[in-house]
Write a structure and sequence with these properties.
Helix content is 18%, strand content 43%. The protein is of the alpha+beta class and 210 residues long. The protein has a single domain, classed as Nucleoside Triphosphate Pyrophosphohydrolase (Alpha-Beta Complex), CATH 3.90.79.10. The strands form two sheets. Strands 3, 4, 5, 6, 7, 8, 9, 10 and 11 form a nine-stranded mixed beta sheet that branches. A two-stranded antiparallel ribbon has the order 1-2. A hairpin with a 2-residue loop joins strand 7 (99-110) and strand 8 (113-125). The chain starts with a strand and ends with a helix.
Length: 210
């Protein structure tokens, strides 16, 4: 995976070449990712879904993250990114069903890792309840799925609350589905920049209120 090639960009989002995924994260080259947030409804309440990253992931294992996301390789278009939803969650979604929320700068940094992304962010708004989705998770990437009331998520993004109540499931080592009902703090979520969280929450709320 570290040898996959990504198109790299300057800060104005102009392409300047290609580099391996390993080099991109070592040097901090700007590159493109595809992100899809999934929302549903339960008893008239909007819910937003998070994946639980697999324990085997090199980066941010076991943390809650965007419903489905991944890097766009140098030979892929933004439309090709919909494969992430199909591969990670086992949900058959077409690109035409997604609502574009635009491109959001998204930066993650820790020792030896600089992730500067131009994230193509999409929303898959569904009226279905959580149980209506037949999730078939890619175990190397995703170990579970949870949902959160969108109103609480919005407050969380703007620092009005520091914990979220999540419900869903995780797949155990023996393949058994284990129910989850927990109250989690910020340390259990991938540490995206606050500006990213705020922008995503605002754009999704605008779509849900249409």
């Amino acid at each position: 995976m570290e040898t996959e090639t990504l198109t790299i960009f300057d800060h104005q989002h102009q392409p300047i070449g290609v580099a391996s995924r390993g080099e991109v994260h070592r040097v901090g080259h700007w590159h493109e990712t595809f992100q899809c947030w999934l929302t549903g409804q339960e008893n008239g309440v909007d819910m937003i879904y998070f994946q639980i990253r697999s324990a085997g992931k090199k980066d941010y294992p076991n943390l809650l993250d965007i419903t489905a996301a991944g890097h766009l390789l140098s030979d892929e278009t933004v439309q090709d990114g919909v494969r992430e939803v199909q591969e990670e969650l086992g949900i058959d979604v077409s690109f035409d069903e997604l609502v574009s929320l635009g491109v959001i700068e998204n930066c993650l940094r820790r020792e030896g890792f600089i992730d500067n992304e131009f994230s193509h962010v999409f929303l898959y708004p569904s009226k279905n309840a959580f149980e209506d989705f037949s999730f078939k998770l890619q175990k190397e990437e995703v170990s579970g799925m949870v949902r959160v009331e969108f109103g609480s998520f919005y407050q969380f993004c703007f620092g009005e609350v520091d914990e979220l109540v999540v419900d869903g499931f995780e797949i155990g080592e023996d393949g058994e589905k284990i129910a989850i009902h927990q109250t989690l703090g910020r340390e259990r979520f991938v540490p995206h920049q606050r500006s990213y969280w705020e922008r995503v929450a605002t754009l999704i709320r605008e779509q849900l209120e249409l």
